[in-house]
Amino acid sequence: MTRTTACGHAFRGLGMLVLLTFLWPVTLAIAQATPEPAQVILHLLDYVAVDYPQCIQDGTVLDQSEYDEQVEFSQQVRTLLNQLPAHSARSSLLSQTEQLVVLIQDKRPGPEVSALAHQLRWHIIRAYNVEVAPKRPPDLGMAAVLYQAQCAACHGLQGQGDGPAGTHLDPAPSNFHDRQRMDQRSIYSLYSTVTLGVQGTTMASFRTLSEDERWALAFYVSTLADDVADRAGGAELWQSGVDTTRFADLASIATATASEMHAMQGDDGVRVLAYLRSQPQVVMSSSELPLARSTRLLRESLAAYQRGQTQAAQALAVSAYLDGFELVEASLDVVDRRFRMVVEAEMLRYRTMIKNQEPTAAVEVQGNRVQGLLAEATTLLTGARLPAGAVFFSAFVILLREGLEAALVLAAILALLIKAERRDALLYVRAGWVAALALGGCTWLVASYVITMSGLTREVTEGVTALVSAAVLLYVGFWMHSKAYADQWRTFLQGQLHDALSARTMWVLALVSFLAVYREAFETVLFYQALWTQAAPAYAPVLGGLLAAAVALAVLGWLILRGSVRLPLGLFFGATSILLVLLAVIFAGKGIAALQEAGTLQVDPVPFPGISALGVYPNLIGLLLQAVLILISAGVFVYTHYTAKGT
User: Fold this and answer.
1) SS3 content of the chain, % helix, strand, coil (to 5)
2) CA–CA gap between residue 512 and residue 516 (Å, rounded)
3) Residue 562 and residue 421 in one domain
4) Alpha carbon of 265 to those of 184, 233, 242, 260, 269: distances in Å?
5) Domain interval for residue 262
6) Residues 155 and 76 in one domain
7) Residues β-bridged to residue 619
8) Is the pTM of this model over 0.70?
9) Residues 185-200: pLDDT tens digits?
């Protein structure tokens, strides 16, 4: 009775752990998708950065009420930061906020305060994955009509702050033609104003408008002060290739300011930004290729490190690998696997140097080396398009590599049910892998069209899922090994095996099938998405390779299943338990490697041969965990063996 109760608690605990594991990526993404306190903080920091320099000159307060507001805003930022979800970067953010409060209280020069406020904004955006851009290009035609209906009464028909309803307002409505002020504001800051309103003024929140409408208004307002000639000049510059790598998506447009562009590229930079603000859809006309994304993020990472922003540089370096290079690894393996391994190792070295805060000059050398390697990779994959045979083989390898482990697990479970004469329970296993495929597809859709799920989130999800899978496989493997001895499985043949596979056990087996398939489903879709883009417009080899791999997996699974069913029951339990334990060791190694790639766990390289197919990587944590699991499994197997002989 006690044993049954303990097992029940274990099942329930395991079920809760797994439930949390699969809800985690969605809840994390939702929690990080512009949490309201974070948006308010960014809104306040934007006003500090723009308005503080206008109320202080040479340590003298020019406008006391405006200065008091800046002091209040900085203190509100400190309060709201403490309300944000726990994060490893929060203590650093609070330290920067305290510094900002002190600078304002000491009436430090405007540029110094603005620089710190801008820096703090970016650190919060990256730490909490705040969404700073619309999900689709805004409709500026609709926005013009919306502006006249919602904004013109106060801000004026042309946005000059001279609307009839704003004549007697104090402070007066913003003049969107005030270049000095507007050059300091990004579209995201305008969106925040539309969304949250402005404290202490008649500018109210427009949350009643849809998110798309608010983004459209922000884009439209940002264009009111722009000259037609500037936009035309920007269009010519854009079409000639200027800034096409800097402005790769809507977020890069929404977060840029005219003053920043002028500081970097003079009037040409301002013209390009003016054009893109009026025609944001041009950056969405073609998808950014993975290697181009990787190169851009690496360049931004190096720039952040040069500015002393170590955390931001590390996050960008991780994203450069996970959101770019990793997606084309299968294709590079077909062309030059050794070269792919070199690039992967050098990108890891670059991330490690940043994490260890090595001298800027050394990091620059390594960053430039990696950029050169990425350029070579781009030449290999896009300079000369992969032939149809190579594309077919890449598509074949992706699914075969990602699906082989799942096929082995599913075949073992199905054989167990058939041996136990519980074909009725096959429905549980089928439900498990079908649900995994469905959830993997839904996760991809949500991450692509609803919320932004970074490569880091994806990799952490895969790592956690792999470790949970390892734990479940160990449990099932140990259970099966305990039934491998003749005097025990003979009793099972008399009916106990049939009865032992209760509803709870069925759900555990369904869970195993779910874990085995879901662990790689989402990432596999991303790999095919990258290959699809690379192979355009010849898609037939991709589809052919995918279909061939699916058939190969089905045949392989059938052969394993057929062979397993024909084994004597004792031998079957023994062999299958060893297989499941080995898969658990492989999953554990891959889980640790995924968390290390995401930067969640430290990487300690050791001189040991790596075999990625077996989850063996030359890093200390992964090897130690796998060694411990092997020793524990060996101990359990030996104990079971001698216990069975003693009885």
Assistant:
1) 75, 0, 20
2) 6
3) yes
4) 16, 14, 10, 9, 5
5) 140-284
6) no
7) 605
8) no
9) 889 889 988 888 877 7
